[in-house]
Amino acid sequence: MPAALTIPRMFLARQRFPRPAVKDSAQAVRSELAKLFPPGSIRPGAQIGVTVGSRGITGIARMARAAVDFLKERDARPFIIPAMGSHGGAAAEAQRALIAHYGVTEESMGAPIRDAMATRSLGRTPEGVEVFIAEAAWGSDGIVLMNRVKPHTDYKGRIESGLSKICAIGLGKYDGAQEYHSHIFDIGLGGAIEAAARKIFSTGKVLGGVAILENAYHETAKVEAVAVEGFFEHEQALLEEARKLMGSLPMKELDVLLCDRMGKNISGAGLDTNIIGRGVNGYLPGVPWQPWMPSILRIVVRDLSAESDGNGVGMGMVDFATKRFLKKVDHRITAINAVTACGPMNARTPVILKNDREALETAIRTCPRRPGGPLVAYVRDTLELEDVYLSEACLPLVEGKESIQVVSSPEPLRFDAEGDIESPFGAGVTPPASSKARSSSAPRPPQGP
Fold first, then answer.
1. Strand runs (DSSP E) across 185-242, as ranges?
2. What is the pTM of this model?
């Protein structure tokens, strides 16, 4: 390896984003469902499914339980349906395990989980999309769609990630996910999702939806019922609202972005493409995927989240990663997800290096030399962006910005004896066996050796 270079000193920058928040998300779910289902609107004994996906939605277990309890009070017999396409290797038991990560189990819900992957075809839409629906959903008396509404990582359109997506791809299981993603080459994924959702709605199986919006602090910002009438227009308006609540990096140009972790619970693409400015279907380093997104030359990822259960999809957008990361990747599960999405490049392995120090040094070495030093940002992941560590060269570029507070002076990153960073984000990664795990989740400034 080339001689070691000096890693720049880093300072903590704290960002301020819009922060609307719901005080009691469970009560909000009950109140919104009451708008969809007034007393007497549900036949006693009706079997009604509630969708739960694979995304890391804050408080999803409390909200799903609130939906179950509400439906029981309306004399229904609710159940949970895992709705996540090909995730979990397209296996029922793995999808059940994924939602268990979020506290959604039969015991905690007080309701059965129907996780079978079997589907039936509903025929084709006028656009030529064959539509599938899970047999568990088809055999029910109706489905309540519950999901977070947010900008999608793969495409841009009037409806992106949210209720329509969990209706089409979630309820379509593996068969639906394969079919809809195959249309990225003609009408596009967004067009296929909306066409499939409309076909499913025409069956009368969807009773309405509960949309969840989160702010940039990963808090519930809004819970809103979405009725069947005007459903797609309503979701479009919610998407625009969600877009304004998203976090962002404090710099529009970076040499290196360092992330403690990536994973399916953080973003469907492992790293949120809206934050890193790279597209899942290929990218040029430093060239934003969309004009308003940042330009990042190199991305380094230290670890894969435990909630991903080995799914490293999206790692094809990463330039450098560690042996720790690679050991956690299940290449079979990752390949199934990437190939189903017609994006095999997302299962490609980054350049793997021994430890964090080597990965970060190599990333910096492959960037242009700047007189003031490299522009480096260090985050826990692309979901939590309030606290960002920036290299010393970034200081004059962010000082004086109203939305950014410089919290600490530049100091060296702290590395352990194995050459791995002692994360200032607490439980950002699984520490090596020889290192002490930190119990605090509050960020602390890096310290010198």
1. 206-214, 220-226
2. 0.83
Task: Name the residue among 212, 209, 217, 321 with its Cα closest to residue 261.
Answer: 321
Q: Which helix (H) or strand (E) holds 257?
A: strand 253-259
Beta strands across the sheet bearing 77-82: 77-82, 47-52, 142-148, 206-214, 220-226
Which part of the chain is CATH 3.40.50.11440?
Answer: 25-245
At residue 431, the pLDDT reads: 39
Dist. CA 296–CA 276, nearest whole Å? 7
Separation in Å, CA 14 to CA 217, 298, 421: 12, 22, 20
Q: What is 25-245's CATH topology?
A: Rossmann fold (3.40.50)
Burial class (CB in 10 A: 0-12, 13-18, 19+), 351: middle
Q: Which tens digit of pLDDT belongs to each residue from 140-156?
A: 999 999 999 998 877 78
Burial of 313 (0-12, 13-18, 19+ CB in 10 A): buried
The predicted-structure confidence for 231-283, as pLDDT tens digits, reads as follows 999 999 999 999 999 999 999 999 999 999 999 889 889 999 999 999 887 77
Whose structure tokens read 């120090």? 357
